[in-house]
Structures are given as structure tokens and as C-alpha cells.
Amino acid sequence: PDAIITAPGNHVIAIETERSLKTAHRYRSIFKSHILAQKKGYWKAVFYVVENDDIKKLLSRRFDQVTFIPFDESKHPFELYRDKLVRIKTLDELKQVTS
């Protein structure tokens, strides 16, 4: 991640800053790393921080293209992880979480 924060309630959150979109394939690889880190207890969730609502919508659509995460020789549906792992926040929304 680009940073780690401790939110209210002592929840450790990984921060990814997004200035440009990556391919769905690249996000699949990134999500796999975050899922493994979450399982090891390094952090509870990942916040993707974007500049504005337009980029937030584009990023959400890109995440919709990630349908599975490969583990060993099996494919796990990303929907099993997405709601518990990933949040997309604008800069203004992130300020509300950490205050």
C-alpha cells in the first residue's frame, strides 16, 4: 500500500492512492496481495483514495471487471472479498473517516 492509517476503533487500514486507472488484471494481482495481508492480520480493509467522484465511479467500474482472484490453481470470486476488503473514498470522504 501507499500508506497505513489507524482509524477510529483502532482499525488498521491500508491506503492506495489512485491518480490513474490500472488494468483489471493488475488490480486482480493487487487485490490478491491485500487479501493475503488481511488474512495475516496486517490490516482490516483497503481504502482506495481518489481525487473526486468522477474518478471514484470509473475506479468502481474497473473493479467490477475483476471477477475472480487466483489462488494456487483455483479462482475465487472477487465478490466474496470486495465488500469486506475494498472501499473507494474521495479525499474529502477520507478526512471524515480519520477525524
Short summary of the structure?
The chain is α/β, with parallel strands linked by helices. The chain is 43% helix and 31% strand.
Report on the structure:
The chain is an alpha/beta fold and 99 residues long. It is 43% helix and 31% strand. The chain is built from four helices and six strands. The protein has helices at 24-39, 53-64, 79-85, 91-98, and strands at 3-7, 11-17, 45-50, 68-71, 74-77, 86-90. A four-stranded mixed beta sheet has the order 1-2-3-6. The protein has a two-stranded antiparallel ribbon with strand order 4-5. Strand 2 (11-17), helix 1 and strand 3 (45-50) form a beta-alpha-beta unit. The protein starts with a strand and ends with a helix.
Please provide the ordered H/E string of secondary-structure elements.
Answer: EEHEHEEHEH
Number of helices: 4
Strand content: 25-35%
Tell me the major beta sheet. 4 strands, mixed
The residue-averaged pLDDT reads 90
Number of strands: 6
Low-confidence stretches: none
- Helix content bin: 40-55%
Distance between the termini: 21 Å
